[in-house]
Amino acid sequence: INIKDAIYYASESWDAVENSVIINCWNKTGILPLVSHEEIEFAAHNQDTILEQQEQDTDMLVVDLTSQDPDPEIENQLNAYLDLNNLHILTEEMLDDSEIIEVVLDEANQYEHGDPDDSDEEEPEISILEGLMGLNKFIGFFEQQTDPGFKAEDLKIFQKYLALVNQKYNESKRQTSISNFFMPQDSLQDYDD
Question: Whole-structure pTM over 0.70, yes or no?
Fold first, then answer.
């Protein structure tokens, strides 16, 4: 049995468990408070009553605030302010299909032509040694493949590039003086002068 089969078996087992069994298990744990259907309805009714009372209190507050100056404009402004809590404010305008298509095409166009805003971060340059090691690793991977999609002709191309990068790597090496191994770097500058 592998992990995938174990996951399928567990999924099938859970699908076979009835809801009543799960409810009974939770009830037997004693974690959940025992609540009857009537208690749930009572709590919902209480919550509705509290919300209605809060709304009435708010209305009375507006009446109290405007009783000394019965200007209907002030009352309207207060009600508008208090209704802001119930207002769903859109942070972006709703787009129609043509606007969505335009945005998507603009983003695709920027991606194809290279967005100048994205040029702030330059990728670090890969050294010759890193390229050589990566190419060696890829060729090793390529040689291990048995899939017919990995063709020998393609491998020859990568081996050609490996030889080219190897040549560049060897050209980039610098010969070191034997005195570098025996003298500290500070002493070498004095010696060269």
Answer: no
